[in-house]
Structures are given as structure tokens and as C-alpha cells.
Amino acid sequence: MKTISITSNNLSTIFEQIQVQLGGKLKIKSKEYRLEINNVIAEGFVSGISVEPAISYIEYDIVFKEDVTLTYRQDHSSYIHFGYCSKGKLVQSFGENGLKNTLAQFQTGIFSNSAKKRTFLFFRKNEEVKISMITVNVLSVSDKELKTHLQSTFVNNQENSELAHIGSFNLKISEKIDHLNCISQKGLIRNLLINSTVYLILALELEQHKDDLINAENSYNSLSQSDMEAIKDISEFIRNYPEIQYSLKYLSKKAGLSPIKLQEGFKIMHNRTVTDFIRNVRVEAAENLIRTSELNISEIVYTIGLTSRSYFSKIFKAKYNCSPKHYQNHQNRLAITA
Question: What sequence ranges are listed for the domain HTH araC/xylS-type (predicted)?
């Protein structure tokens, strides 16, 4: 088993240490880091973003060709790691022989080691994993409200003990990570979008932790990993084909879930009912067509699977605060000005 040791909390030093031990080509641009690896040790990449001096984001999208242990060492327990597993699984422990905690696909995890023990992350040979980790130095967080919340929730009384919380399945975080990886803008706009998305992921982690504590003593049975995968797949299907006349019975059968589980999954992932989700997908698809196509409003209504132009105008105005025609005319004026 190969061991990778990280002894710094500075993002630049972390990537230097990983490159020395794993090889690969390191690209640095502004506050973004990307280490691309394709050798006898691993294949994939490790990317990182410095959001502010106290907050960093690292993503491992990689396949190791041998069993690998990655160790983090901190001198005190003010550092909190908010983890999320998008693919595969991750095993964590405090100390090499400590109790092992498993983070499954779509699952959240929050870890903080004491000054006496290191955090160990275990990666299995030939297993593709995609792990995201937001690391926060609580004592240096600039936002006072966030700092107070993190201290009272995670840091207080942790000096001589460890914190390991394995949360419930959460697909909203996976969605935001995908958004983060798809940001194509450059310069200031890119930085602002990246920072806001990382903060949103952190907020979702904190929300999940709060919900887990509330439901800890309840008999509520959360959806299984396979259920969440089915919800994610059916959501993407709806996005790709908004024009289909969906019924709850059809979607339940296609997803292999009961109508109750399907509705529960959509509430967890999208905070919407299935019907609300379909309606929102159609409106967003219409908005995109208004901006990018030459279709008139009636043609767009048909393209997204609706038959009533008046109903479409109603739901479009509810989301964008103007009529579709007004929105289209405004886009046309912008195009002429450009």
C-alpha cells in the first residue's frame, strides 16, 4: 500500500506535496490548481480552489492502480473537512488502525481530527472515485456568523477528541459540484461564480448535518443509494426530454420506484414535487430557446411539450417576472445593440 502524506493546510503546498509523491503535471492559474496524473500509480486528476485564506476546495477524480492511503496532519482541531462522495466510496479513520467510517456514493461526511491523531483516507486499487472536500479553518473564517456557527457546532470541546459525522444521501450537492466543474467564464466573473458555488456546497453540507441531527431519533427511513441514483437518472431524463407528456405512473415505472418514493426523492434532491420539477424544467428550457433560437413563442410552447400559450405565459412570468414576449423582445434589442 502506498502512503501519501500531506503535512500542510496551504493549498499550494498541498499540491506540491501530492505532485512529488504521485507525479503528474501541475497547472496553476490564479487561485485554481489542477494536477493531471497518468502513470503507473494513478490515472485522473486532483483539482483545488482557494476560496479565501480560511476555506479551500479539493476534488479527487481518480483511479489508483494500487491501494493508497492519504494522511492529513493538523496541529489543532480548528480545521473541519466537509466531504462528499460523487462516485465510488471513501473510507476514513483517525489513526491508521482507528475505527473506519465509510462514505458511500452521494453521501456527506464531516471530519475533524484532534491534535494527537492524523486523518487517514483509504483508496482501493482500480476503483474510480470522485471525492470533494471543503476544508475550513474555523478560527480564521472572515464571516462572523459562519465562524460562530462552526465553532459552536463542530469545534467546541473537540481539542482531545475527533469528530466524524456520516450524513444522509444528498443529490443536491452532486448537482452543485457538476455546476462548479462546468463554469466556463473567465476572470472576475469566474472567480465570483466559483466562490459562490463552493459556499453553496458548504451551506448544503451544513443543512444536511442539521437535518440529520433533527431526524436522528426519528424512525424516518431515508432513501437508499440505489434509490438516489434512480432519482438522479430520471431527473436527467426529464431535462433531456421536457416535451414528453409525463405521468407519475410512467416516471415511477421507469425509475423502478413507488410513487411515494419518487416524490420523496424529488423533495430531497430538488425541494420540489415531481410536477413542479417538470414545470420548472420546461420553463427553463423555454427561456434557453428564447435566447438561443429563432423560434416564435407558439413554436417554443409546442417544443417544450405544452399546448396552452396562456398557461405558458403564466408560469414563465411567475419565474422570470415578465411575459415571454417581453423577454424575447428584450433579447432582440440586446442582440441589435451588440
Answer: 232-330
